[in-house]
Amino acid sequence: MKQVSPEHSILLIDDDEDDAVLFGFAIEKVEKNIRFIHYPDSIKALKDLNSFTLNPDYIFLDLNMPKLSGIEVLKELKRVRRLWHIPVIIYSTTTNADHINQVKTLGATDFISKPNSLTDIIKAIDKVLSSL
Questions:
Q1: How far apart, in whole angstroms, are the C-alpha atoms of residue 128 and residue 132?
Q2: How far apart are CA 129 and CA 101, in angstroms?
Q3: How far apart are the C-alpha atoms of 130 and 1, rounded to whole Å?
Q4: Average pLDDT over residues 6-19
Q5: Other beta carbons within 10 Å of 67
Q6: 50: part of which helix (H) or strand (E)?
Q7: Regarding predicted confidence, which is higher, 33 or 90?
Q8: Which pLDDT belongs to residue 2?
Q9: Please, which of 53, 67, 120, 132 could form a disulfide with 115 given CB 3.0 to 4.6 Å?
Q10: For the whole prediction, is pTM greater than 0.85?
Q11: β-strand partners of 110
């Protein structure tokens, strides 16, 4: 994996608290120098991203969320000039090929199906971060 400094951060936008806890633990195993930020509310995440409160280096985004779906969040992220350069990795349980193709067309950097084990989450995160 690339060397990262303590200033680097990963934002996870995901309404599932259990998945977020596991994801945060996996991030710590992959790279201790990355600050992990979790937002369970996609609307609040977008508000803070648009108001300069958040400026992450990477965004991991779930598709299946209440209020504002991950696809809608991705569209907004790629519409805002200040945010479009941030790599967005879709992190979802969906297996819908149309959704996967749609997010790639909309500018998602990668798509990860939520793994079932901590070991698989660590491998998936490490693979994505190593390729960025």
A1: 7
A2: 21
A3: 4
A4: 89
A5: 10
A6: helix 42-50
A7: 90
A8: 45
A9: 120
A10: yes
A11: 89
